[in-house]
Every structure is written in C-alpha cells, then in structure tokens.
Amino acid sequence: MANYKETNISGTSYIRAKEVVIRNELDGTKGAAFIEEQIINFDGATVKQPYEGIFEPFTPENQDTAFPMLDANGNETGETKTYSDVYEILSSLYYFVATKRDAQNSEE
Fold it and tell me: What mean pLDDT do residues 76-105 have?
C-alpha cells in the first residue's frame, strides 16, 4: 500500500550541542557532557530530535591536549586552548557568579 499523501521534500540537517553539562565530581571523573540534537529544516519547517551525545573526561593524561578555537562562524581563529584552560575558565566563572550571588543575597 502506498503512503497517504507522500511527497518529496528538500532541506538541510545538522547536529548541534543543545546543552553542556560539566561534571566536577569530588571522587569521580570530571568532564564535559555535550547533549546533542539534530536540526532538520525542510519546506519552512524545523524539526528537532535528540542525537547521540558525547562525554569527554578531564584527566591528567589529557589536560594539556590542545584544540583550535573557532569563531561564531566555525572558522579557526589561529588560537588554541587546552582542556586545562577550559577547566580553569569554568572554575573562574563559577567563583565569579557565586560571589555575585552572595553579594546580592547579603544586600537583601
């Protein structure tokens, strides 16, 4: 039996990180989990569906691993960062945000 009202469509599809979860376990594996989704654009419609996802641990063995920085268009900037840099940046951001919160709470 044929599919009811079957039509051919054209469009594009890509994968994106929809969410990033940073694990900072006291006695476990630290790392970053990238929750991915597939975006499908066709005939003016957009469909979002879950995709695989990736977890990358932060370990002593990979702390000096360098990766290229990308601009907003996905082009390499010529700069690199290491896993250790990311960990330090996130730690610094946490302390900054927590301190800002604590200052606001003390004013209330």
Answer: 96
- The residue ranges of every structural domain in the chain are 1-58, 60-108
Q: How far apart are CA 69 and CA 92, in angstroms?
A: 19
Q: Which long-range contacts (CB under 8 A, 24 or more apart) does 17-22 make?
A: 18/48, 22/90
Nearest-angstrom CA–CA distance, 36 and 53: 5
**Chain-centre distance for alpha carbon 23:** 13
Could you identify the residue written with the tokens 């604590």? 102
- Rounded to whole angstroms, how far apart are CA atoms 59 and 105? 35
Confidence of residue 7 (pLDDT cuts 50, 70, 90): confident
97's tokens: 């945000």
pLDDT band at 69 (very low <50, low <70, confident <90, very high): very high
pLDDT at 1 over 80: no
